[in-house]
Amino acid sequence: MKNREMIAKEGLDMSTVSKMGKPVTIAIDGLSDWRIVVEEGAIASETHAARELQHFLREICGAELPIVSDEQPLAEKELIVGDNRHLRELGIDLDTGRLGQDGFVLKTVGNRLVIAGGQPRGTLYGVYSLLEEELGCRWFTRTESLIPKRSSIQLPEINSERIPRIATRTALFMDTYDGDWAARNKINCWSPYPLEEKHGGKIAMSEHFVHTFYKLVPPEAYFEAHPEYFSLVDGTRRGSDAQLCLSHPDVFRIALEQLRRWMDEEPEAAIFGVSQNDCTGACECEQCRALDEEEESPIGSILTFVNRLAEAIEEEYPDKRIETLAYWYSRKPPKHLKPHRNVIIRLCSMECCFMHPLDQCEQNDSFVQDVVGWGKICDQVYIWDYLVDFKHYVMPYPNLRVIAPNIRFFTESNVSGIMAQGAHTSLKTEFAEMKSYLTARLLWNPELDPQTLIQEFATHYYGAAAESILAYIRLLEDRVDALVGYHAGCFDPPTDKYFSPELLDESERLLGHALRLADSPEIEERVRTVHMQVKYTRMMLLTEKLNQVRSDFFKEAEELGITRVTEWKPLEESKERLETGQEPF
Ligand SMILES: [Zn+2]
Ligand SMILES: [Zn+2]
């Protein structure tokens, strides 16, 4: 169980935390005379919060606390869930504006405990944090949880407020696309997560969320009659593989009409993309160039255009925001302009090295500088971050230790949204579930100790084999440190330089040991899944006896439920490609 000191150190904005005070006793010897109070007609996520609290308390101590409506008179021994009449009778005025959609307070009031937050998710998150921090509950994967049993429950006096610094949080791994898992670990965004109303829903991205210039002003519809709407590149207007002429008044008018249509078509979506296509080709006409020169960055013409659209829609669509990319040629922040209040600026760490923390590797200097620069002029800087090698999903990619420092760097730079992209098209890839869990926990609270999170996960997930698996992870990390000048991005191939024969042999020795220690069929399968990382690497580096190694690898991959070894191709296709001398992706 975490103590008060540890909670006080967490990286969330909090008001006060009591370290001493009167504890409350909720259950003794499996019996409880407490009850859970929720508002009559509460929203789905607050009703669910009460049920989740009831469910997990019963699992912990065996007692089933009744859930009652706030129309019952206020009494002692109440767990007051959500903003309701009892809360107000106690004189607690919940500052829902300040708490936002996800923030909450936990507060002992005499012989009662208040768990209440902003809507739609704050109260539910408050329940999960209480269970996690005070009672040791963990939701590691969609099937593996730790709910410690204890017949008596005593809670210290609590008085804390939590508002996450990272307001929009996602870790994209197919293994964890589960609404309950996501809500319990406070993931609140992105379409693959089936977050329902009972989970408080999610911050929904429009289906038009990235690289949308040609969707806003389609060349098929306009280029022939109006080439001047499109980028002037090297003296020629281009209707493909380029951008728009953002200073043209008709382009603004057409884009605004299209954007309004999208917003009407997707009333539930909160974030809409107005962003450059995934290529270069910015407009070089006199007006566009003047805007870029004024701002000393190609973002000048883009942000001028995006700000105007944002201003034009803000009254009509007050809950919607426009996201644009500061990406590739446009990443450098502008000299004078500032993003409008409803504009999100998203940067992508795609070309960075992930073997070292972002701000501790010279390869990443310009990215770091741009993130810091944007953070100074914008309160809605979002990051598209990368957690795996997308060409080689199964290869060892020892970046577990950079996840926490990177998230901390982002929060210190005023970043308020992170989408950490992992293996989103395959199951059972390199440490997928561990990375997803670690990332989700740290996105909510960047100050948590990553080693503790990894250790807890490994102990539960790998049982008796945990220490050998952790030794294997350390071996891979030590190899990075031993190779001075070694860096790796998220599309790099396995190399002889990193994967020396000694490293692969020692990996097999540790994993062989882990396999002998595995004390259940599930754990044995998980250890074998880790072993596939080394087998994959050997297959990719080998030149002799390749056919046998390859057919063994793919047979075992299928058996273990690995559905892809690369982002873009199904397993069978990767196998065929390798057989015909091509890359697997
Ligand atoms: Zn132009
Ligand atoms: Zn590096």
Automatic annotation (TrEMBL):
Presence of keyword Kinase: no
Annotated organism of origin: Paenibacillus dendrobii
GO terms, molecular function: alpha-glucuronidase activity
Annotated Alpha glucuronidase N-terminal domain residues: 37-130
Protein name listed in UniProt: DUF4838 domain-containing protein
One biological process term in Gene Ontology: xylan catabolic process
Keywords, sorted A to Z: Hydrolase
